[in-house]
Amino acid sequence: MSIEVTPQDLVASRFAISPLIETMHAQWVLAGRTQAGVHGKWVVRWRETYQELVREHPVLRAAAAVSGNVGSTNVDFIAPPPTAVDVSFEDELAAMRGTPLEQAHAEIAKVLAGRPVAGWVKDLLLGPYVVELLADAYEALWTRILSHEWPRLRAVLQRDVAQRAGRLAAYGWAAALEDLSPRVHWRRRGHIDIEMISIGGTHRLGGKGLLFLPSAFMSSIAVYLEDAWPYAMIYPARGTAAAPPAPDADLSLLMGRSRARILAELSEPATTTQLAVLLGQSVGTTGGHLAALRRTGLIAGTRTGRSVLYARTPLGDALING
Questions:
Q1: Are 180 and 222 contacting, i.e. CB atoms less than 8 angstroms apart?
Q2: Which residues fall within 8 angstroms of residue 98, CB to CB, at 6 or more apart?
Q3: CB burial readout 124-144, b (16+ within 10 A) else e
Q4: Cα–Cα distance between 123 and 80 in angstroms, integer?
């Protein structure tokens, strides 16, 4: 498929983070429907809790019929694209709860048409309480699992957004999208080409722009092109490893464990706050280590809006790589 992008679309496009969409993606991983990848240990740690949730909320199993089906149509109301840059889970869940039952049934019926599903699944998904049941299930999933991981995951996603937004501002769309996915390509005459299994043709944004959503759990591209929602593209975020890279023991001995970990973590650019969350330190402690690394020429900072994005210098790369 190809997305035609006008100058108005370029101005209107933006990056955002959705905790509700990430909760949905995490459920696919916990349920074994998508590969765990770097989250293997995380899945093992939370598997028993997730199985308890499935017993308490059977709709989590039923949702597999209408959500997360690669190459097929899926419902949108479960986790619509966010309407702001950094919305809370509670606000997104409230929007989901506000879905009219007629709309939910229409989306579900469209997906289930011609698809064999168990009778109990169909009865549950087309029942009078499906919106409430799904909202309750995702709220429980967030409260008992994702909320504990969210500060770290949010820092990873924010770091990806800051880096790409900086590239976009400095070098343009080609630089911002060049490593989004091997399936995404920017063409100079104003088109984004995406290799999709189930979607073809050319789609015009009509000046509405495109919402880019990084995901810590997705390993492939997904797009929303329904007129009822903001046009959006979900893509795998950089630096989604479940644990920070371990620095060399000799390097830790040389400069201290915390500074060595920060230098290792800066394989991807990050702000002071993001690093503090990722490493479990206070902002003041992390800032002191960053100042020392910056004075010695191992890292450099670039201001993006009200934040400073830190990255390793060639000297820092050489040191961390031995």
A1: no
A2: none
A3: bbeeeebbebbbbbbbebbee
A4: 23
- Selection from 101, 98, 123 nearest residue 112 by Cα: 123
In order of 85, 154, 209, 270, 271, the CA distances from 77 in angstroms are 19, 22, 21, 33, 33
Using alpha carbons, select from 181, 202, 175, 198 the residue that is nearest to residue 5.
Answer: 202
Sign of CA dihedral 55, 58, 37, 215: negative
Fold of 249-320: Arc Repressor Mutant, subunit A (1.10.10)
DSSP letter for 247, please.
P
What pLDDT is stored for residue 59 in this prediction? 95
**Continuous segment of H or E residues that includes residue 88:** none
pLDDT tens figures, 75-103? 889 988 887 777 899 999 999 999 999 99
* Residues sharing a CB contact under 8 Å with residue 180, sequence separation 6 or more, in sequence order: 164, 212, 221, 235
Q: Domain coordinates of the chain in residue numbers? A: 2-236, 249-320
Instruction: Please identify every stretch of the chain with a pLDDT value under 70, giving residue numbers as ranges.
Output: 70-72, 188-189, 196-200, 227-229, 239-248, 304-305
Residue 4 has which token pair?
A: 């035609």
Q: What are phi and psi of 3, to 5 degrees?
A: -110, 120
Q: In the prediction, which pLDDT does 125 show?
A: 95
Q: What angle do CA 4, 186, 268 make, to 5 degrees?
A: 130
Distance of CA 231 to the CA centre of its chain: 16
Cβ count near 317 (within 10 Å): 14
Query: Is-contact 133 59, C-beta < 8 A?
Result: yes
